[in-house]
Specification:
Elements: E1 5-9, H1 12-23, E2 29-34, E3 39-44, E4 47-54, E5 63-68, H2 71-83, E6 87-94, E7 103-108, E8 114-119
Parallel strand pairs: 1-4, 5-8
Antiparallel strand pairs: 2-3, 3-4, 6-7, 7-8
Length: 121
Amino acid sequence: MFDHVGVNVRDYAASRAFYERTLAPLGYGVVRAFDEWKAVGFGKDGKPSFWVAEREPFTTGAHVAFAVDDRAIVDAFHEAALDAGGIDNGEPGIREQYHVNYYGAFIHDLDGNNVEAVCHR
């Protein structure tokens, strides 16, 4: 449905480093970087689908969920995000209130956005 989505951050360098580490287990990497504009696009297969840019107003409280094909990837995402400085907002596990196979993990990024990895299998 979406072509791409982005969040505005307070500190480009810190947020870029956070997302590089956090999204790596999902297979996402830097696809495009415009350091002179303090913007970076993460994605797969050469297509940036998640953008981070230092500009106002800062995005806080947004919820961005990344779909993955395997529960182990959710676990790896959570661990990588914590190691990168994220704040736990829900450890990996089943969320039956959504559906019986909803396996997700939630992290607050450096600006307070709720970032999730979810497997529906």
